[in-house]
Every structure is written in structure tokens, then in C-alpha cells.
Write the C-alpha cells for this entry.
Amino acid sequence: MNTSILKRASDAGIITINAVDIRDYSLDKHKKVDDYPYGGGAGMLMQAQPIFDAYNDVVSKNGISKKARVILMTPQGRTFDQRIVEELSKEEDLIFLCGHYEGIDERVIEEIVTDEISLGEFVLTGGELAAMVMIDCISRLIPGVLGSEESASDESFSDGLLEYPQYTRPEEWQEKSVPPVLLSGNHKEIEKWRVEKALERTKERRPDMYEKMLERLNECKGKYPRKFRKKRSLSEEIIRMREIENDERKEI
Ligand SMILES: C[S@@+](CC[C@H](N)C(=O)[O-])C[C@H]1O[C@@H](n2cnc3c(N)ncnc32)[C@H](O)[C@@H]1O
């Protein structure tokens, strides 16, 4: 959290990240925060009290509303994706609760957690890496975190397609040339090529996303048939749909 883009954003005061050690809230002289699960079974569970006291202290010390979302990192949660990133990037404060060992006493989850999120169908030893992944993704959507040279708007998932292939200098490398259209200076053709490539890639790698994109296009065509009267290729129709959606957003 303390290098590169996130460090720059922290230094500029755009984001503030506080790591809290739950052990500091243990009432045990050895700072123990775990115990055996009732009913038996393998492993240890994090106890409710240190987590609850840590939460209350974080909220009061930082002037955070008790309505702030508290996100439990858990393989049992809703699977993390860019839609969740967009949703959470609009929140003022977020609290991430990272489990360890076999997990956390259910009662404190009921008491403070508002969202349960999983990074995917695998099991980590603790929630910290998952929380760091989330913090990284969310931070980059906060205005000012990415500099003008970095942009979050054209990326994979940002508009329902995977990103098109990209190239930088030199024009020729290992006898491979940059696609000529990218050197043409014709912005319309470049945009069309990029959407075509994004469609090809998405169809091949994420057929589910591709199908959703076609459904979205059909919905838009159903809503605005007159705007699609002229015959267009699929990539041109997608560009048209994005223009229409942008106009709709501006009107709102
Ligand atoms: C070993 S796991 C506990 C798994 C738990 N016994 C279960 O089966 O649901 C320890 C901690 O790692 C974190 N964790 C593990 N896998 C995760 C995932 N896929 N996404 C988010 N957090 C995860 C959670 O915070 C969890 O409490």
C-alpha cells in the first residue's frame, strides 16, 4: 500500500489507509485473539470481543459513521468484480475485516458486518491479501488517484468488454509490426479497430461477457430503433450504443 500509485495518492491526502492490529484489543495477557470452536472441529476461531472493540475504536477515533460499510473478507461472500469496485469507490469510508485461522465467531459478523466478499473460489490463510486487492482496485477509481497518464475508463470490464491489444515503441520488434491502423492518425478507424479487437478477444476468452454485450446492444436497439436505422458493422453498433448511453448519462 506504500509504493507507486497508492503511495502517491496517500501522500497527496486523496486516500488514507489505516491498518489495525486486532491483537491490540485483546484482553488476554498474551494478546490471544483466537479460541477453539464450540462443538469441536479442526482449527481455531477469532473471538468476537477483540474484533468488536477494534471496530468501535476505529469508528470513534476516525470519526467514521456507524453506517459505514464493514466488509468481511470470506470465501463464502459475493464474488469480487469491477461492479463491486465501482459501487464501493463511491463510499466515503470503508472498513475491511480480515479473518484468520478457521474464520470468525459468527456473532460479531452479525453485529458489525454489512457485506461479505470473496476474492474467488479458493481459500487463503487470511483476509489481508484479499483486502489489499480490494483496496488497490477501489483506490484507482477515486478521482485524482490515477494521474492523467493513467486512465481507468478504457480498461477491461470498464465497459463490458475485455481491453483491446496495445503496442508501444518501437514500431517493429522481433519482425513484428504494430498494426498500421494505429499509426494512421485516423481516430475513427482506430476506435473501430479497438472495439473489433475487444469484441474478438471477449468472444474468445469470456463468451459470457460477450453474450451480455450483445444483449445490451439489442436492448439499446429495441429502445432506439431509429438511431440504428443505418446499416453498421457490429463494432460500429457498439460505438453507437456507447454514444447513446453517454448521452443518456449526461441527461441524468
Ligand atoms: C482459512 S480461511 C477460513 C475459511 C473458512 N473456514 C471457510 O471455510 O469459509 C481464513 C480467512 O482467510 C480469508 N479468506 C480466505 N479465502 C478467501 C477468499 N477467497 N476471499 C476472501 N477472503 C478469504 C477470510 O478472511 C477467512 O476468514
Summary: The pocket of S-adenosylmethionine is lined by residues 73-76, 98-100, 102-103, 118-120, 122-127, 130 (CB under 6 Å).
